[in-house]
Amino acid sequence: MKTTKKLKRMVAGVLASLMAMSGTANVWAADTEENVHLSMAFWAEQSEIDRLDQLLEIWKADHPNVTLDYTYCAGPDYPTKLQVWFSSGKAPDVIRMSRDIFSPFASEDLFADLTPYLEASGSAGCWDESLLDIFDFDGELLSLPYMYSNYVIAYNKDIFDEANLEYPTADWTETEFVELAKTLTSGEGPEKTYGMWFGGWVCELVRALYGEPKMYDTENMVMQATNNEKFKAAFQLLGDLHKDGYCSNEVTKTTTTGGFVTGKYAMAIAMTGDIASYQKQIGDNFKWDIVELPISETYDTRWNTNMRLQGFGMSKTTEHPELAYDLIEYMTTNYEVQKAVDEDGVGIPALTEYLESEEFKTNYGGGVAYNKEAFVNMAKVGTSWEYAGIWADINDTLTSEFNAYITGATDIDTALDNLQKKGEAVIEAAKS
Amino acid sequence: MKKNRKRNGIYREKDFYIFVGLWIIGFIAFTLIPMGYSLYASFTKWDGVSAPQFNGVQNYIRMFVQDERFWGSLKNTLYYTVVSVPLNIGIALLLAILLNKRLPGTNIFRGIIYAPSVLAGVAVYMGWTYLYGNDTGMINHLLYKIFHIIGPNWLQDANWAMTALIIMNVFTCGSVMLIILAGLQDVPAIYYEAAKLDGASPFKMFIKITMPMLSPVLFYVLIMQVIGALQIFTQPYIMTQGGPMFSTYTFGLHLYNQAFRYYDFGYSCALAWVLFAVIMSISIVIFKSSKLWVFYREDVD
Hints:
The complex is a heterodimer of chains A (432) and B (301).
Chain A: H1 2-25, E1 36-43, H2 46-62, E2 66-73, H3 78-87, E3 94-98, H4 103-106, H5 115-121, H6 129-134, E4 136-137, E5 140-141, E6 144-149, E7 151-156, H7 157-162, H8 174-183, E8 194-197, H9 202-205, E9 216-217, E10 222-223, H10 229-243, E11 265-271, H11 274-281, E12 288-291, E13 295-296, E14 301-302, E15 305-306, E16 308-314, H12 321-333, H13 335-344, E17 348-349, H14 352-355, H15 358-362, H16 373-378, E18 382-383, H17 390-406, H18 412-431
Chain B: H1 2-8, H2 10-41, E1 44-45, E2 53-54, H3 58-66, H4 68-100, H5 106-118, H6 121-131, H7 138-147, H8 161-170, H9 174-185, H10 189-197, H11 202-230, H12 234-239, H13 251-261, H14 265-293, H15 297-300
Antiparallel strand pairs in B: 1-2
Helix pairs in contact in B: 1-2, 4-8, 4-9, 4-11, 4-13, 5-9, 9-11, 11-14, 13-14
């Protein structure tokens, strides 16, 4: 009897010691000879995969005791993969995330708070503070910024030259933008040249064109489509440009015209990732450049852009948090990694040191020079939008109501009222 | 005698179970168990990440009482089925009859008509998206150049989007045409010769001989086409995302969105079971009706 008790105490003691040590054991895992297995997940195109492959080899060379497995897929499949990993309890240690698909996962407490690691590493000053804020969920930092993409306006210099108009500059106003869109629209049918192309992005821009209050408040889960002067003004402005024929209607997000590269549009919304295709497809067909979104005189603000901020986070179930953080920090603070992001042309690197370098300013992906700084300037009016969960459901209603408005099937008040009611119903169902 | 019975009986049974065993294991693991789980999940609130929470028949109540898009998507799917299936079969039948004539070049036409059916779906739909383009699409370009008509904004106009999908579907009737053509070639020539001797007109021969002899093939084609049409997903997903104004929002798209975009797996499973019930019911009705219009040669023999 005594022996059993003694044995139990011993086992309990060993277990307690192991548990106490487990927290610290990981801290040194990278420096010890102990073999450690780490997993990482990301989405990427093939060119980016090749580049990441090389960069991760460098990290692996610095961590000879670590076996790093990484899994990747195409962007559209990634949210489904995340669901499968988390629901099966087999989430990778390090996970690439995008802010716009983060909400449903953030609310499930699946990611580790990186704040203590960041404080310990002293790397907090590596990025613009606003970028860190975007990954802040209820006071917890769930990812470190890796890169971002946002919106600017691309313009066809040849069309401007033909019309004898000056190119837009960073301080242009909304009134000037509307005037240009109208002036530069001409012709009819397939021979028509449009002043502006928004494509499907219009229903994203409209949600928070003039900043707060947005169409919905995700933090407090409230719809703000009605009694919201800014949202109504944005809805009307962008809606009327379509309704009156100054923009082609591609609101459903299915690009049927080929967009800006066809040369049929004087101006067009462009995302960071579009630039690579501009460089490739436009070639010598016409001259182009980009400019920041215009400034609204009424609301004294530049049009807000979606900040599709991407980063790397850590699964809460990881057995090697220190090592996982080491990898996250490598991906987000290493100059060469950030340079590779820039060279791939998939986004704007998040690291301030690289953004301030001459290399960033002069790297045009092997194509023509353009006003690259516009993307960095737009980050100042960047706002995070939602693409997943109940917010995707409400976004679909917005697209439908916006379409109804521009085709004259409904008036603006009815459209906003419908949006408000349907949005409230979705939120209510999610809360219950 | 005993040995012989064993060879013919037990051993044959053993062989049978060995051969079908693998399939049965696969069926149980990858179809039956997931179906069972999906049935259970349809009675839960489940976001696909955390554990499902039982909520009784709430998903079904929501579907029938609160969800406007459920009824809208069901209506769109039935409309697509009712219009596209007869159109597809009708055109395929017409083409098969034409190609059944022993004329020069029929083999080439057969290949041309069948070609769209063997091309990869997504690539074809992307191609059609550009053909339908409002400002740069070839269809509107030709309409404008030849007739000076400004064509509709096919995929962005709620009045035209579903029609555009149906028209596109007609171009994939090659496989149906091929099945019907095989059926036509199986009709014994002796029947036509006898009818000719009796002075029957070509139309009468078509109604009295061709159609009855072809009815089992048409029955098969109808069942397969109806099931395929009720499950339509890829075309609207690629070409319209269900828009504009939910005019091409089909049941399959609603089901997909609920699961993979809105993260409402429980509700999506409930939708899947209702779709299953709809397909099953319509199939049963077609099967029952087949007694009235499907003619099997063995019935006479």
